[in-house]
Amino acid sequence: MISDRLNDALVIRTAVPAEAEVIAALHVRARSTYYPDGVPRADFDWTEAWRGSIERPDGHVLCAVERGRIVGIASFRTPDGATADRVKLFQFHVDPDRWRAGIGTALHAACVEEWRADGRRTAVLDVHVDNRRAQAFYARQGWIPDPDSPPAEDDHHLDLCYRVPGE
Q1: ∠ CA 155-59-93 to the nearest 5 degrees?
Q2: Starting at the edge strand that comes first in sequence, how are the strands of the sheet with 144-145 ordered?
Q3: pTM of the model
């Protein structure tokens, strides 16, 4: 497991439950930039949801910390009913104030490093159809449309997959 990964002033490490409120705030800021009507389910307790993800024994939440401030987050685990060599990236966000600073690329590399160490061969995610910035980022990282999950006509998300490179 990755405990600390240092990249100049950027540290990528496992999140702790005490950081759930800060992580939830970053999540809301990031998502509100690409959802047409703002953050869905504004009445939802995002802090408790993130605390649950952090404490989940079969999940991982990594955070990118720059000069003591959380500026990126990634949450992943084996999807329900999937084989152990498959992982789903459920959340991946960089603070909008820090976009295009290399944080997402470094955080993604840390995810891939952990997936490889855990024996994962395939990663999947879904991305909102209107989130062109994220789609372009994932394409640059090597994600492609998931051939096992073509989009439905009225779906608001695209399913992508990534082949985790082997040793």
Answers
A1: 55
A2: 4-7, 10-14, 59-66, 69-77, 86-94, 122-128, 157-163, 144-145
A3: 0.88
